[in-house]
Design brief:
Layout: H1 2-25, E1 43-44, E2 51-52, E3 59-65, E4 69-76, E5 104-109, E6 113-121
Bound molecules: zinc ion (ZN) (2 copies).
Length: about 130
């Protein structure tokens, strides 16, 4: 009687392993169907207002200040960074021009969500952050 039970448990483990292998064979998170490219933008570049889609990321540096604040220096998106791009870059707070080598600052609280940024401004309107 006990032997039957042992067999059942081993069989169960075997099935579990097969399930794990199957799961590993099919990468999750990349189940994009065709035609889904024309989706809504994931966000907008705060500097040049370019709508950004999946894979187009804003370049930024994050610095943790203690464990209560994260300072994010937003450099821009692929459309307004680098010497070949000529898009106008403006501070979303004071609307002043932001040079290509300048950044705008945003703060977030890592205890809530370090990616939930509150944009503070550029060197001109928020100099205390620089
Ligand atoms: Zn941009
Ligand atoms: Zn500003």
């Amino acid at each position: 009687m006990n032997a039957d039970q042992g067999y059942a448990i081993l069989f169960g483990i075997g099935l579990g392993l097969i399930a794990v292998l199957f799961w590993m064979l099919f990468p999750i998170g990349d189940r994009r169907r065709e035609g889904e490219e024309e989706e809504k933008p994931k966000g907008f570049c705060p500097l040049c207002k370019q709508p950004l889609y999946a894979g187009e990321r804003i370049r930024s540096d994050q610095t943790e200040i203690g464990d209560v604040e994260v300072q994010t220096r937003i450099k821009g998106c692929p459309y307004c960074m680098g010497p070949t791009h000529r898009r106008a870059r403006n501070c979303p707070v004071c609307k002043n021009k932001v040079a290509k080598d300048e950044v705008i600052l945003a703060l977030s609280d890592p205890r809530i969500d370090r990616l939930k940024l509150s944009i503070k401004g550029c060197k001109q309107c928020w100099p205390q952050g620089f």
